[in-house]
Amino acid sequence: MIHEKLLSNMELFWIWLILGFALLAAELLSGTFVILFFGIGALLTSAVAIFTPAPLALQILIFSLASLALMLIFRRRFITPVTAAEKKSLLSADVDTQITLSETLPAQGEAMISYQRNALDRRQS
Q1: Is residue 99 a part of any domain in this protein?
Q2: Which domain holds residue 18?
Q3: With helix as H, strand as E and coil as C, how does the chain read?
Q4: Is residue 12 included in any domain, yes or no?
Q5: How many folded domains does the chain comprise?
Q6: Residue 58 has what pLDDT?
Q7: Is the overall model pTM greater than 0.90, yes or no?
């Protein structure tokens, strides 16, 4: 455990700043719009650490509350909700679709099927 007296506010500022940018970079890889708010919360906490002599426990509380508040307020604006009808049409788009092979497929044979620009490996059983 890191003892609070060992870290100055300037060191805590850098830790929060690096954590914030690391979380923002992780969000770029995940695309879930959850880590983004924790990254922004860490950046806000770094501003608190540089401008006020807040203790580490208070900084952790600020980080937690800011991250959760940002997520609760703004997450819905980033994600477009999908209605039940849209979800059903997306899931059933390929149901009952026929695929015609350009060659005869012998029993126990294999073929590559190109369907909607995706190559599918199919075996005849």
Answers
A1: no
A2: 4-77
A3: CCCHHHCCHHHHHHHHHHHHHHHHHHHHHHCCCCHHHHHHHHHHHHHHHHHCCCCHHHHHHHHHHHHHHHHHHHHHHHCCCCCHHHHHHHHCCCCCCCCCCCCCCCCCCEEEEEECCEEEEEECC
A4: yes
A5: 1
A6: 95
A7: no
